TrEMBL record, chain A:
Pfam family, one: BPD_transp_1
PANTHER family: INNER MEMBRANE ABC TRANSPORTER PERMEASE PROTEIN YCJP, MALTOSE TRANSPORT SYSTEM PERMEASE-RELATED
InterPro entries to which the protein is assigned, alphabetical: BP-dep_ABC_trans_perm, MetI-like, MetI-like_sf
Transmembrane segments: 12-34, 77-101, 113-134, 146-165, 194-216, 252-270
Major place of residence: membrane
Taxonomic source organism: Sinorhizobium americanum
Gene3D superfamilies per UniProt: MetI-like
Record-given protein name: Inner membrane ABC transporter permease YcjP
GO terms classed as biological process: transmembrane transport
UniProtKB/TrEMBL annotation, chain B:
A single GO BP: transmembrane transport
Predominant localisation class: membrane
Record's protein name: ABC transporter permease
Membrane topology value: Multi-pass membrane protein
Classification of source organism: Bacteria, Pseudomonadati, Pseudomonadota, Alphaproteobacteria, Hyphomicrobiales
Length: 285, 294
């Protein structure tokens, strides 16, 4: 019984080595955030002075107030990002839940090939297909609307969502479907009343990862298919802090942290789901 | 008989919306790219066939450089991501207090909107006031300010490092999950036989991780080859085209200069490379899966 405990017992120098390794690793991961946060506290005069100083002497949260004044549309950009991500997530779920169920449960000709085709979609990023997508959006008349970001956004998030949810649904025992079927339930009824409730945790994970994916990857479609300020999402809207002469770095960083906050809150509360969800969806990026 | 048929119909009914959507938004544009690449499409109203003229035009020394640069950039980025990511996973796999927190702290670069992380790196690379140049000067390692994004060779590496930073969390979490899937009794058996920690790592962990490493490298290769946001925000392909990869080059031609036809020809070449990677990936994962006798 004590074996697993014994095997995991570290000598002090092993422990020191591991913590040193973790420290170096996390320093690389977190350095930009630390630096970005310190920059948001520094007044511009201190930022643009040499020699470089790491700590913000007479730092303040002033930039977190002025950022709303110098770019009045900022709240709108956050709202846009949320709105786009929310609709994208809803559409992806509506398309993916039935498809994942079909892949998980039914054997039909072309099953494997179709699943492979979906996965192949992952390999082509939106960047490669921008030209025809631009023409397609133009002929659909959705350039410079929310749909210009939503329509292509959905397509590139479908494959990993299908993959993730299918894996989850494969784990639901088949006997449940069969029992319902024997009782005379239709396929549709079985899906709605038996499978959906059991698959809810899996659907939640897919919803979270899709939302985050959409929130994180709006840049290229928004940059190319939308030029209206009122529809700009956060990543593009942040360019408003790039003035004609110089970048208002402290406000840009403050705005970045305000924009990050929703994602950080999500990580904090849902990290348990996230780790399994993100790695199972490793097909994504 | 009819039950079986109704089942198949039901399956297709469930699949149809997703299939139609992806066909219109991804498959059709793929075909359209191919067709456009043989035309002189631009902002003009009329478009005419130009045969292979677009392809003839791009096969020159400059474009060959772009292709080579793309492969070098991608290769370094993937290799560094795999090394740092696997290192992180090995560290975070150790049963030490605080590891749950450390794992959460690994995620931000991937979860935060990419543009924001890239802005932060943009500031850190700033020569006059940025952290990297500043710290190097304070430590006396360099004598004057180093503007990392203003010189070709440093900009090349700077964009790679930022790409690595964004890609590492996924590699770490994936490798971590693979490590935890290794049966614990293998370690216990080795431990009972008196094998030390390093020996167990070298003889059990590493060999069993190889399939995951191959899978992850392939996935990372495809994602990295497609990398756009990082280079576009940091350097827009400059200075002097020293960070211009195939994606950036395509974007500049197609969206920047509005030469859709020429841009499409470049996109077709990217698609060909991606297809090769994709087929290789499916082959490799298939072989790995059958090797596991599943």
């Amino acid at each position: 019984m004590s074996q697993p405990a014994m095997i995991n017992r570290y000598r002090w120098y092993e422990l020191a080595g591991i913590y040193a390794g973790i420290f170096v690793f996390l320093s690389f991961i977190l350095a930009p955030f630390v630096e970005g946060f310190l920059v948001s506290l520094k007044p511009l005069s201190l930022l643009f002075s040499s020699p470089y100083r790491f700590w913000p002497e007479n730092g303040s949260f002033e930039a977190y107030r002025t950022m709303w004044v110098s770019v009045p549309g900022f709240a709108r950009y956050i709202f846009n990002s949320f709105l786009v991500s929310f609709i994208v997530t809803a559409v992806v779920l509506a398309l993916v839940v039935p498809a994942a169920y079909a892949f998980a449960r039914f054997r039909f000709r072309g099953n494997g090939a179709l699943l492979g085709a979906f996965l192949a979609v992952n390999m082509f990023s939106g960047a490669v297909l921008l030209i025809p997508l631009f023409r397609l959006m133009r002929s659909m008349g959705v350039l410079n609307t929310y749909f210009a970001m939503i329509v292509p956004g959905v397509a590139f998030l479908i494959p990993s969502a299908i993959w993730l949810l299918r894996t989850y649904m494969l784990r639901i025992p088949r006997e449940l479907d069969e029992a319902a079927f024997v009782d005379g339930a239709s396929h549709f009824y079985t899906l709605r009343r038996v499978i959906l409730p059991i698959a809810m945790p899996g659907i939640t994970v897919v919803a979270i990862t899709t939302f985050i994916g959409s929130y994180a990857q709006q840049f290229i479609f928004a940059l190319t298919f939308n030029s209206k300020t009122e529809y700009m999402p956060l990543p593009v809207g942040l360019f408003a802090y790039f003035g004609r002469q110089e970048v208002v770095w402290n406000e840009l960083m403050a705005a970045s942290f305000v924009g990050i906050a929703p994602a950080v809150i999500v990580i904090f509360f849902l990290q348990r789901y996230l780790v399994s969800g993100l790695t199972a969806g490793a097909v994504k990026q | 008989m009819s039950v079986r048929r109704s089942t198949v119909i039901f399956a297709w009914f469930l699949l149809l919306p997703a299939v139609l959507y992806v066909t219109v938004i991804v498959a059709y544009p793929l075909v359209d790219t191919f067709i456009l690449s043989f035309t002189d499409a631009s902002l003009k109203k009329t478009t005419k066939w130009v045969g292979t003229a677009n392809y003839d035009k791009i096969f020159n020394a400059t474009f060959a450089e772009v292709i080579i640069r793309t492969f070098v950039w991608t290769a370094f980025s993937v290799a560094i991501k795999m090394i740092i990511g696997t290192f992180g996973a090995v560290m975070l796999n150790a049963a030490v207090p605080g590891r749950a927190l450390f794992r959460v702290l690994t995620m931000p670069p991937w979860i935060v909107p990419m543009a924001i992380g890239i802005f932060m790196w943009g500031w850190m690379y700033n020569g006059q006031f940025g952290m990297i140049s500043g710290l190097l000067q304070n430590l006396g390692l360099v004598s004057g300010p180093v503007a990392f994004l203003a010189h070709g060779s440093t900009a090349f590496w700077a964009t790679i490092i930022t790409d690595v930073w964004i890609g590492v969390p996924l590699v770490t979490l994936y490798m971590l999950a693979s490590m935890q899937a290794i049966p614990q009794d293998l370690y216990e058996a080795a431990w009972t036989d008196g094998a030390g920690r390093f020996y167990r790592f070298r003889r059990i962990t590493l060999p069993l991780l190889v399939p995951s490493m191959i899978t992850m490298s392939m996935l990372s290769l495809i994602a990295t080859f497609n990398s756009f946001d990082i280079i576009w925000i940091l350097t827009q392909g400059g200075p002097n085209g020293d960070t211009t990869t195939m994606i950036i080059d395509t974007y500049r031609t197609a969206i920047g200069s509005k030469k859709y036809g020429e841009g499409a020809a470049r996109a077709v070449l990217i698609c060909i490379f991606l297809s090769i990677f994709c087929i290789t990936y499916f082959r490799v994962t298939h072989r790995l899966a059958s090797g596991e006798s599943r």
